[in-house]
Structures are given as structure tokens and as C-alpha cells.
Amino acid sequence: MQTQQINRASGRIIIVLSVIALICVLSGYAQPPQPDEGTAAHIFQLSILALFPTVITFLATADWKHPRRSAKLLAFPMATLILAFVALYHLEHYR
Question: Is pLDDT at 80 greater than 90 in this prediction?
């Protein structure tokens, strides 16, 4: 695979994993509070864990001659992850 193809694939994987993390947290609002972690919590944890090597791969294969393009591609996943962690904090502390 070429570097650009790896970068593009890892960018897509980052988007998918961040959306999965957000969906897992939002699914907690559809259920009554539970004393134990459910499946969604484990999927959330695994998606966050999988993000680390994927982001490192994305950054390692990024075209640093055009850093604005890489930043644009990371904007949506970062916003999604911030929203997921804010929703998780709210779910854990206020619900």
C-alpha cells in the first residue's frame, strides 16, 4: 500500500471508531441506570483503545507539506470524541 492509501484508510477508521464510541455512550441514555458496566461500555473502551494506534498511523503517514488537510480530517473525529466524553461524564455524574 502507498502511504497516501494508508493515511486515507486510517482516517476513515478514526471516523468510524469515534462514531462508535459516541453511539455507545448515547445508548446509555436509552437504558435505566445499571449497577454494572454493560456491553456498550466495553465496546466504548475498545474503540478508544483502538484509536491510539490508528491516530499514530494517521499522523505517521500524513503529508506534512499540507498540514491543514490533515487537521481538517481530524476535526470531525475530535469533535465526536469530545462530545462522547462530555456525554459520558454527564451520564456517570448526573444520571
Answer: yes
